[in-house]
Write a structure and sequence with these properties.
Helix content: 25-40%
Number of strands: 12
Radius of gyration: 19 Å
CATH superfamily: P-loop containing nucleotide triphosphate hydrolases
CATH architecture: 3-Layer(aba) Sandwich
Strand content: 25-35%
Number of helices: 10
Shape: globular
Order of helices and strands: EEEHEEHEHHHHEHEHEEHHEE
Strand order of the largest sheet: 6-7-8-3-9-10
Number of domains: 1
CATH topology: Rossmann fold
């Protein structure tokens, strides 16, 4: 049985269907990258998996199954038990998703105590430990900082640390390397790969960066205008496919000295 299955899923806003007939399967420990231009529906798909479609959107057809269990009929209590423990998400700018008037430690402690019956001191120590695992120097200082006092790379590591607190089976990552310098991007990508290797976490990463997809993914899904245009193994989609849209995306990747590094 697959870890996650989307079967003929439609996602609508009002009367407009924005994602059509989406089929996607993810196995345990597998990394799937969803690529495509802005507005293609990539983020909408992963938000649907976590039951967090923004702006009044909803799943209007199909099934979303996690370990064979439908996610479309869960109660708020069942969602609270699932989110953070089994399924976590890293947002595009983790710092922007945090309350700018609260210190990192306050948010982290609240997050841990929402999912676990521990004291504030125990939650604080657990938060520091997770930050240290993400190779953030001086975790106590980070815990006492506000989000705007951290760099983009530090904020993303905080987001990953929070998302991985309970070693989820599935991690959803929405453009986790966007707006970061290339050195920090490489560090974030390596750390996400280490999460898969250490914990067996399956990952769906949404990205515009074909280079990130080619490095990380076991499977690649190409979306355009709310429809899956192409999908398959990394080797098939990036090097063997005859799909014209995928070929155009590949041709758009810059080359150096006549060689394209994907």
């Amino acid at each position: 049985m697959a870890l996650l299955e989307l079967r003929h899923v439609d996602i609508s806003y009002g009367n407009r269907v924005t994602v059509k007939d989406c089929d996607l399967t993810l196995e345990e420990g597998e990394i799937c990258s969803i690529v495509g231009e802005s507005g293609s529906g990539k983020t909408t798909v992963i938000r649907a998996v976590l039951g967090l479609i923004a702006g009044g959107g909803r799943v209007t057809a199909g099934e979303i199954l996690y370990e064979g269990r439908s996610l479309l009929d869960l109660s708020p209590r069942e969602w609270r038990a699932l989110r953070g423990h089994d399924i976590s998400m890293i947002f595009q700018d983790s710092g922007a998703m945090m309350n700018q008037t609260r210190r990192i430690g306050s948010c982290f402690v609240e997050y841990i105590r929402t999912h676990e019956n521990v004291s504030k001191k125990e939650a604080w120590e657990k938060g520091e430990d997770m930050l240290a695992r993400m190779r953030l120097p001086d975790p106590d200082r980070i815990m006492r900082s506000y989000p705007f006092q951290l760099s983009g790379g530090q904020r993303q590591r905080v987001g990953i640390a929070m998302g991985m607190t309970y070693q989820p089976k599935l991690l959803l990552a929405d453009e986790p390397t966007s707006a970061l310098d290339v050195t920090t991007q490489a560090q974030i990508v390596r750390q996400m790969m280490e999460l898969r290797d250490e914990y067996g976490t399956a990952i769906i990463i949404v990205t515009h960066d074909i280079g990130v997809a080619s490095y990380m993914a076991d499977r690649v899904v190409v979306m355009k205008d709310g429809v899956i245009e192409d999908q398959g193994t990394r080797e098939h989609v990036l090097y063997e496919t005859d799909n014209p849209y995928t070929r155009k995306l590949m041709e758009a990747v810059p080359s150096v000295g006549g060689k394209r590094y994907v």
